[in-house]
């Protein structure tokens, strides 16, 4: 018995009350902006705000170090400023990787919630 995703969603809506159905609808697929703004909600939303602020601060410092690297005439000074620029770049990349992992975690949690609803639906059908 194969059913399309829309038919399964309709069956789930029939088995759930209005509040549960509304919550189930929120668990659907999200586009990228919705996923990014979803990072700032929940228990760890404050941590993501702090990460964004730190990222912009490091970006400002990195721009400063790049300008100083370009101004420096001595090769040793250029290498030192280039090292600081590279360190800032690596730090920003690591923060972005952390953010993308958070996006992935939230998507997995949404899918787990959808599976929980489907299991609940199957249990209610077996009970009938």
Question: What does this protein structure show overall?
Answer:
The chain is an all-alpha fold and 128 residues long. It has a domain of 75 residues. It is 84% helix and 0% strand. It contains 5 helices and no strands. Helix 4 runs antiparallel to helix 5. It is rod-shaped. It starts with a helix and ends with a helix. The model has no long low-confidence stretch (mean pLDDT 85).
Q: In terms of per-residue confidence, which ranges show pLDDT below 50 for 5 or more consecutive residues? A: none
Helix content: over 70%
Helical segment count: 5
- Kindly, what is the distance between the CA atoms of the first and last residues, rounded to a whole number of angstroms? 19 Å
Instruction: Return the string of H and E elements.
Output: HHHHH
Assign the structural class, choosing from mainly alpha, mainly beta, alpha/beta, alpha+beta, or little secondary structure.
Answer: mainly alpha
Overall shape: rod-shaped
> Which percent range describes the beta-strand content?
under 5%
β-strand number: 0
- Rg measurement, Å: 24 Å
Largest sheet geometry? none
Whole-number mean pLDDT:
85
Quick overview of this protein structure:
The chain is an all-alpha fold. It has five helices and no strands.
Which helices and strands appear, and what pairs or packs with what?
Blueprint: H1 5-15, H2 18-26, H3 32-38, H4 45-71, H5 75-127
Helix pairs in contact: 4-5
Defining traits:
84% helix; mainly alpha; 128 residues; 0% strand; single chain
């Amino acid at each position: 018995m194969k059913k399309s995703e829309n038919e399964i969603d309709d069956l789930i809506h029939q088995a759930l009350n209005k509040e549960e159905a509304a919550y189930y609808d929120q668990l659907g697929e999200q586009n990228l902006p919705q996923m990014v703004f979803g990072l700032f909600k929940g228990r760890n939303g404050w941590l993501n705000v702090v990460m964004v602020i730190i990222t912009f601060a490091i970006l400002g410092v990195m721009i400063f170090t790049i300008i100083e690297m370009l101004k420096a005439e001595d090769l040793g000074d250029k290498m030192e400023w280039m090292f600081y620029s590279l360190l800032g770049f690596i730090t920003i990349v690591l923060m972005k990787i952390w953010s993308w992992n958070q996006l992935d975690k939230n998507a997995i949690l949404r899918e787990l919630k959808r599976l929980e609803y489907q299991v609940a639906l199957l249990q209610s059908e077996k009970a009938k």
